[in-house]
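Sample entry copied in:
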Amino acid sequence: MEQILSQEEIDALLGGLSEGTIEVEQEAEPEQKQEVKPFDLVQYTRCKKESLPALQFIYERFSKSFRSALSLFLGRDVEVEQNPVQHIEYKEFIKTLPLPTNMNIITTENLNGFFIVIFDAKMVFCVLEALFGSTGVSLPRIEGREFTKIELNVIKKLADIVSVEMEKAWTPVYEIKCKYSRSEMNPNYVTMISQDEIVSLCQFSLGIDNINSWIKMCIPYGILETIKDYLISTPSREGMEMRQKWIEKMKEGILHVPLEIRAILGKKRMSLQDFLGITEESIIIVDRYVNDPVDIMIGPKTKFKGKMGILKGNKAIQIEEPVH
């Protein structure tokens, strides 16, 4: 078989390899195996909720008013900073809470729902020190115990302050009435929310003297969806002023709408044959006596009960009570 390289060429090639003048092709290093993490598309879709700009606007108003109210309540300066709103599953949220914790249920009448206010234990003890005469607030010792009756009374006062300031913050967007319901130490005792339900969560960082703490606001997203039309746009001051003027103008216009008011003295059901037999001297016996109340109707509905009488020589009816 004919040689491809001569002996001189082979010797030159070996010499180049030994001296390093000819580069040798390096073997490719094996690629590092990358870890593959599963992606839960269903959970991602559930948590990907529509942003509600007005809710961010509400929380901004709340953080400012709550700072003033809490500073006045404690008699010292308090710093309040709002964090962005996020949407997570309720079961993931309660995993982040320490045990025991302080969860306060606040019911809302107009919103037909509720929200949960969670107070950091450090905040509760700092407020207690400030209220009971401590000259300076120090880092409290947090024990794994339940709150005493005195501590629960202070917590209720804090929850009442939150309720009042939340009503003020919501007013430009949607008027609500807040009322403290109860407190729970264990998140598993709050059974009004399903573990898989998505909640809207906002945390407020608090600074009381040299102690940093927080409160968290948790609202089921399903409750917010019932008034989503009010929350998808941020109200402006000019818009609120125009809205108020429009409401006042509508009220003024409604007050001048003419109404037809009828007083029903009595009723009688009869057959067509009896009706055709009525003459000028016929007497019709109605369904009530002379002293019975008279129905006063506005449109097709009875709104008041009244009594027949005479006023300045004219027949009149005196309204005695409304009909609900």
Residues 53-74 form the longest helix (22 residues). The two ends are 118 Å apart (CA to CA). The CA atoms of residues 32 and 303 lie 82 Å apart.
